[in-house]
Write a structure and sequence with these properties.
15 helices, Beta Polymerase, domain 2, five-stranded parallel sheet, five-stranded mixed sheet, 52% helix, elongated
Length: 377
Amino acid sequence: MIRVGLTGGIGAGKSTVAKTFIERGAYHVDADSIAREVVAPGTPGLARLAQAFGPEILAADGSLDRPALAAKAFVDEESRTLLNSITHPLIGQRTQELTDAAPDDAIILHDVPLLVEGHMAPFYHLVVVVHTDAQVRLSRLVELRGMDPDDARQRIGAQATDEQRRRVADVWLDNSGTPDRLASAARQVWEDRLTPFRDNVADRTPVPAPLELVDHDPDWEALGERVVNRLWALVGQRAQRIDHIGSTAVPGLAAVPVIDVQIGVADPAAADDLIETLADGGFPSVSSAAAGERFHSSADPGRPVNVYVRSADGADVRFALDFRDWLIADESARAEYLAVKKAALAGANDDPVSYAVAKKPFLDRALARITQGLTES
């Protein structure tokens, strides 16, 4: 199974994407429905809200008067924090109960409006963001939902910014067109990415990494951050450090578009202990590498990743960091390495092993140069 987080600003069009995925078999866990369920009449959640915000948030029949609650809960950060401290734990508990009940082969769809605000992105195999400009969303809320304009602006302003959503988005669906166009894009995501991803995780099948050199992509920094955060969410305190390494971590350097990450652990036994955890999380084991090291690769067809699990106090961990930092600091070293990579690719015949072997003499020389530089300093 894989867990997919679906989010976007209020009025962005998440329901169209959710409907498209559900029609194709997604196991739907709807945060809005759960949020209503945990504060239904007679629940402890509703009682706590009434105690915190006053009995005037209750309708005549004892149910929650949502506009009355919004008028109190969205006036400032302190009030929003109080609201969230009451509802979020209840929503989280019920969400986990529903998730645990999902079939083993499910694509679990968590429809979570405040996914970004709740810092939940690392806990999903993949995050889908539906985007619409704020002004368009405002018009939809006022014209189609009948919301008061000031209330709508307040709701939009209280949510994450577009930039914050972009940093966590594995899939960015633009809803500036028609609902049919958005549904078509969602269908393509389901067929080309979600279904293969789910099957690859089940079969423990890594996705072959591309072997081509492309210009540096500024998005690699955010992508590396997402992968690192995802791995921390998976392995927790069993890791001593997790770092984005390799060429994609070096601004301005052309690279094979694969995010390289290393996990530093206590010893080889700790590396073995992570094999199934990483595989369940979307990073199946490929092989044992050097002594005490495990190599994993991504099962996501849209996100090539290599994960090296190494002893945290080993020489390989230190060299990966020193080599990355040396390339960042030294323009001539970057140019030299780029020439080496071009030559290695030209002779590799699409064989990753040949490519790695061709680069090794330069890496050995780099180790000596870096060691000498550290000694001299």
